[in-house]
Every structure is written in C-alpha cells, then in structure tokens.
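Support request, priority: normal
Reporter: lab tech (M.K.)
Component: structure prediction queue

Hi team, I submitted a job for GlxA family transcriptional regulator from Streptomyces spinosisporus yesterday, and the status page still shows it as pending. I've pasted the exact input below so you can check whether something in the sequence is tripping the parser. The sequence length should be 317 residues. Please let me know if I need to resubmit or if it's stuck on your end.
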Amino acid sequence: MRTVLVVLFDDVQSLDVSGPVEVFNGAELHRPGTYRIRTVSRDGRPVRTSSGLTLVPDHSFADAPPAHTLLIPGGAGTRRPDPRLVAWLRENGPRAARLVSVCTGALLLAEAGLLEGRRVTSHWSVCDKLAREHPSVEVDPDPIFIRDGDLATSAGVTSGIDLALALVEEDAGRETALSIARHLVVFLRRPGNQAQFSAQLAAQTAQREPLREVQQWITEHPGEDLSVESLAARARLSPRHFARAFQGETGMTPGRYVDRVRLEHARRLLEESADGIEEISRSCGYGTPEAMRRAFVRTLGAAPAEYRRRFRPAPAP
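Reply from support: The job had stalled in the queue. We restarted it manually and it finished. Here are the results:
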C-alpha cells in the first residue's frame, strides 16, 4: 500500500487538494489496498483554503507518516511560504519515493531546493518567476504536467487530476484509471505534453482587424490553404509584412499558430468523432495520414490511432 501524503497550508487551492485526492481515493475503492491517503499541516490544526473552505488534516509535521507519494498543492499560500513548511519539505521531500506538485506547489519545492537541475512545469502565471528566481531549474511553461524521474509537476488546477490519473495508471493499471475517469466524467487522461493553452488562448488577439479576421479564418478553416502567401492575401498585405505583423501582434508566427490550430482540431475529432484517420488528416489540412502522424508524434508523443485509443472518453458502463 502506498501512502499518499497531501500537504495542507493556509490559502491552499482547494481543487489542487480535492482533485488528486478524489482520483487516488477512486483507485483505493476500485482496488482496495492500493493507497492510503493522509493529509498533514504544520501543527495539525485546520487550514482555510483560498476559497474559504476549511480542511482538517490527519497529522501534524511532528507525527506525519512516511510518504510514498508526497503531494504539494498550490494556492495563494505558496507565494508567502511558511519557513517551517519549507524546512519540513527540505527534510522530508527526499525521503518520499515520489514527489508531486500541483499548480504553484512547485514554488514551495523550489524554495526547499528540491527542483535543482530538474525539468518542471507550473501554472503559466508563475513560470517566469520560477525560472528567474531559480535559474538551475529547467522550467517549461507549456505542458500540463511533466514527469522527471521521481518528480512530477503539473500546471493549474485540473491538470492535477490528469497527473493523478497518470500515476494511478502507472501504479494500478489502465483499467483502474479508466474506471476512475468514467466516474469523474473526464478523459482517461490528457497527455502530459499537451499545451496548457489552446492556440487562441496562447496567442494574443491581433490589434488590427484584418489580422484578427485571419486568426478567426484559420480557426474555422484548418483544412484550407493556410500558407503565409494565402493568409497575407486575405489580410491584403505582402507576405513579408504579414508575417512580421502577425508575429508582432500575436506573439506567434503564422506557421506556429496554424500548426497548433490544426493539431487541436485533429485532437478534438479523434476524441469526439468516429471519422477515420485519413478523413481527419484531410479535413485538418495535413493532406496525408503520415503528415498528421508526424505532427502528433512530435508534439504529443503518440500517433493518432494511439491517441484516440488512450484519450477518447470511454462510453458509460
């Protein structure tokens, strides 16, 4: 049995706690003896979450059991770290078989010196801060979660559920993870290297109307000719001027934006439709299944057929 020890502190984000806990508890219900879930705070007293909920821990730092998986959630409290919490993590983090952070919980691990030389992610809003204040940490702001050996870090809020499902699948098998996903009405799990943002959210909205119209056109017509020349003509600009203006106003090259839109559209079709791979590749502008396969493997680490098998929501039992 693996002890999952969840660290609580004032102004913790309640969903960072409850999301993963529901997943681990689901695994225990499905396969008794898989996990023992415990919570701990500095002195064992109740803590107040950032949303006003009160959580009552099982243990204080002094009597906490050894953890197989030590989980550190995020929340406003991570921006004003309690020195005693940081010291406890510095001492106890290395003793855990697996160290996990959700959202801004990575800030606490960094303060404790537990992320040195590791590749991590966190909520997009603190990734710059994390990289600036801890230059020896390799911070990747894009994925929803990252596994680096015995360390697992995730982005904001719901990505903690995705990471917990991935850990359950590793510990207890795909069928257990699938059962939990069905119960929670979520995907079996999103791939960790899926971007935190869609293309439309990741890119800024262009200031000039012709460029905004082009952004919308790309989103609505991923299967069309989306070359720089074609898009520039639609914006009534020269290709060179268009490419420079698009990147300047959106923060993303036209090609990068098109790639992300096409990938997201293909993913949605694989998850939500029964269309064949060849049909999807054509409708998303890839032209051939092989071109779409290369894009999926490069970005998501899985071919389209494998992506569909693993990440399409399962039918209700």
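The two ends are 28 Å apart (CA to CA). The chain has 14 helices and eleven strands. Let us know if anything else looks off. Ticket resolved.
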